[in-house]
Design a protein that fits this description.
Elements (H helix, E strand, L loop, with lengths): L13 E6 L10 H9 L3 E5 L7 H9 L7 E5 L7 H14 L6 E5 L8 H12 L4 E5 L4 H9 L10 E5 L4 H10 L2 E5 L5 H10 L4 E7 L7 E5 L12 E7 L13
Parallel strand pairs: 1-4, 1-5, 2-3, 2-4, 6-7
Antiparallel strand pairs: 7-10, 8-9, 8-10
Helix pairs in contact: 3-4
Length: 254
Amino acid sequence: MENEALGRGERYPLFYGIGLGPGDPGLVTLKALTVLRECRKIFVPDGGGPGGSRAFRILESLDASLPRKVLLFPIPMGKVGPGLWRSMARKIISFLSPESPCGMAVEGDPLLYGSFIRLREEIQKLREDIKVEVVSGIPSFVAAAARLGLPLASGRESLCVLAGPLNIQQLENHLLENDTLVLLKARTCLGELEALLRSRAGELKAWLVEDCGTPHERVHLVEDGRVSGEWGYFTLAIVRKNLQDRGTLGGERR
């Protein structure tokens, strides 16, 4: 997808943020696959967790030619200093030219709690002439709701999306204002979630979904305010209040 083929006529360095969805290669959009194939290089974050980069594994399953273009960027989980972001931005810029677009491929959506957001800021600080475009991906909580058959919001209901860690008072405050709460990085505050569910027994239902869309997916309906077992980094919670049963929801899948 060269610049002129996009119908704009300008010539400029082009950098994409490409969302790969939560883990199932079948949920990658056709537009994302087209852009990935056009990219000279594909930069992929690697948090150093077990199993390596999830984004890289998705690329491997999509097209055997894509891994050959990949450059892995080690991005530690947690707080990253400005020097590392700037260094990665300079590395990306060194590969960009009007004739050779590059992209950063991330799980989920590039503009939802992702490393792409900070990298885009640094790139545009260093080079104002670089054009950055985003190819959206399916967020994990949307795929999780589909897996559960669970409406996130209907009619005039409201939905709140948060990322942990959060304390019980923060969780309760958001639930007072909304009908559905999506909690990403839920592992960081499972104790607080348990305490909230126990204090509001009978008023709330909650589900945990780990590694949505992957062979390791787990789905758990939280009953009696108890969260059993160990849960990994890619765990999210969906909490609904005043939910009427709609068929069979939740369950356990390993």
